[in-house]
Structures are given as structure tokens and as C-alpha cells.
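HUMAN: Spend a minute on the protein record below and explain its fold to me.
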Amino acid sequence: MGQSVMGGSIVSRAGWPDDWRSRLIRFLESRERAGFEWGSRDCFLMVADAVMAMTDRDPAAELRGRYRTETGAARMLRSAGCADMRDAALILFRAIDVVDATCGTIGLIEQDGRWSLGIFCGSYFYVQSSLGLGILPRSAAALAFEVI
């Protein structure tokens, strides 16, 4: 990868495999050039895939394969009582202060009036972009969520 994801402190996560951090790094490296695709490589499934890589648990198991378009994703969010990805994250994950985000923490960024999920690792915030993995400064994230 162009930017190292190895920086930052090592955090022990109760109940996670001992190698969760190296699993996350391998996952991020695998997504470096994998572009955005609704229903497989969108922001929600990118974060769900990262969580699955770290924990062996799939927070999106019930939602996989249920949409393939932006309209389908919006319909699924509305059927769950969510107006947007911010609402979904507030339901699925436990909010924490952004300054407390560590490697493996989920974050939200707002761009052009839309909320998108990403994941913190080292000094960066990683998001799914049309060209592959987007690497942003940690300060780009507006909200943070602990994976539970």
C-alpha cells in the first residue's frame, strides 16, 4: 500500500482473534484497488468485511445480497427505519468520541451531504472509493463507533 497502516498503538480486543490487527491490514491491502460497487464493495459492506476480517463475525450477514443498486440500498435503509448510513451506524454500533478511535474503530464521514462508513487504522481513516481504498486523515471522520 502507498501509506502504511502499521502506525498507532496496539490494542487488545476482548473476544477477538489475537491476530485481528494483521487481519485488518491484509483486508485493507486487498481492497487497495477494488472499486466501489453497490451490494459488494460499498461503504457499509467494506466496513462489515473489515469487521468480519478482524472478528470472524459478520454484522451484515442478514443484509448481504439484498441490494445491488443505490436505490436498493436506500430502500433497505428505509425499511430498517433509517434515513441514511448515519442512522444505521447509530443502531448497529456503539458511538464513542472520535478522539478515542483506535485501529479497528468504525467511523463516519459526511461528504456532499451523504454519510459514508470507514475504518480507522494507524494514522488514517480508510473509506471505499470509486477507485479503490481511499486514505484520509483521521480528522476527516465526524463520528466514531466501537465494534462490539
The longest helix spans residues 43-55.
